[in-house]
Amino acid sequence: MWLQQKGAEICGIALEPPTRVNLFEDARVGQGMRSVIGDIRDTELVKQTFLEHRPEIVFHLAAQPLVRSSYEDPIGTYSTNVIGTASVLEAARKTDSVRAIIVVTTDKCYENQEWEWPYRESDRLGGYDPYSNSKACAELVVSAYRNSFFNPADYNRHGVAIASVRAGNVIGGGDWADDRLVPDIIRAFTERRPVRIRNPHAIRPWQHVLEPLQGYIRVAESLCEEGPANGEAWNFGPEQSDAQPVEWIVHQLAEVWGEGAQWELEDASQPHEAHILKLDWSKAQRRLSWHPTLGLGDALAMTVEWYRLKLMEHNMHEFTGKQIKSYEDHCNQTLASRIQESWPSGVQA
After folding, report:
1. Which range is least confidently modeled, 14-28, 34-48, 262-276?
2. Partners of residue 11 on adjacent β-strands
3. 219 pLDDT exceeds 50?
4. CA–CA dist 34, 137 (Å, integer)
5. What single-letter DSSP state applies at residue 26?
6. Could you say which of 161, 242, 280, 347 would form a disulfide bridge with 118 (CB–CB 3.0 to 4.6 Å)?
């Protein structure tokens, strides 16, 4: 929807929405674009769609994105996240219109040492569980395609720049996925029952989904304008103060929601998940002039507002568009303020 607001011509490939209630239908995301329902592991479908649409910029976000689901279906997780990524990159390689490729992986692709320090793009890849590890594997696929087919040294010949991007734990209106914190909380609150939490002390880098999306768009612009100079891995995370434990998020959402919202600890045994995870986004700030602009409190308020209006049967296509526009205006105002602050004393705008 953000790209459509910017005037881009869009074609998307995805499976059918995985939940009965979903953002794709709620916000009429397919309106004004070409939508292809299919599996990215279907290499012929992906190839034909690329050849027919002839994209200039490719955003690859399709994935099996849930940790616990990866324990239940590791083969499906690896085939989607690794082979699916290779399928998309191969289709891009065979389409001469492509100029820039942005592959979305995850902050969980790092070899987690359970330390306090935020991870940098140069830190070692790993991943304990099948999901996290499959995303580290996807990063290796990107690296192999960059070296073998989109090598920066041969950019004048192939004309393609490729980057991977890693975000924190994103939140925002319209997420209805099972086994994900905010949707689980919203479902429980709307049904007036306590939400069951499995890892209340786990610390994650929470951020509104529009924050990393702004970063992804910034990377795409950079690759188109400057070529392969920024064709690398990029972290997009929140301020370090917004890396908070799950319990803190639940308390904040319960307070914003009101109406007697409560939570309780899930007593069943759980598969391993990382206890602490933070991201260092200083490279994006230094080289792309990107930085988060929403505090976690504002991100939670925006998220709750979206769900409340959905329950009131509001026009969610219209409201989602307004949230995007409001966020973009906020970013522009923040940037202008930072430029003003950096000027010598006495200089007026």
Report:
1. 262-276
2. 34
3. yes
4. 30
5. H
6. 280
Are 186 and 307 within 8 A, CB to CB?
yes
pLDDT in tens, 305-340: 999 999 999 999 999 999 999 999 999 888 666 655
Strand partners, 103: 60, 164
DSSP bridge pairs for 13: 36
Nearest to 183 by CA among 15, 17, 22: 22
Distance from CA of residue 54 to its chain's centroid? 24
| pTM: predicted TM-score of the whole model, two decimal places | 0.92
Backbone φ and ψ for 40, nearest 5 degrees, come out as: -65, -15
* Phi, psi values for residue 318, rounded to 5°: -65, -45
What number of CA atoms fall less than 13 Å from residue 1's CA on the CB side?
22
Q: How far apart are CA 220 and CA 8, in angstroms?
A: 13
Sign of CA dihedral 234, 109, 132, 238: negative
| Strand 263-265, strand 195-197: pairing | parallel
Q: Which helix (H) or strand (E) holds 50?
A: helix 43-53
DSSP string, 62-94: -----HHHHHH-HHHHHIIIIIHHHHHHHHHHT
Backbone phi, psi, residue 117, to 5°: -75, 140
Q: What is the DSSP string of 319-337?
A: HHHHHHHHHHHHHHHHHHH
Q: What angle do CA 171, 220, 213 make, to 5 degrees?
A: 10
Quote the strand ranges of the chain, DSSP E.
11-14, 34-37, 57-60, 100-104, 161-167, 169-171, 195-197, 203-208, 233-236, 243-245, 263-265
159: left (phi over 0), alpha (psi -120 to 50) or beta: left
The residue among 210, 238, 163, 224 whose CA lies nearest residue 322 is 210
Could you tell me if 136 and 77 are in contact, meaning their C-beta atoms sit under 8 angstroms apart? no
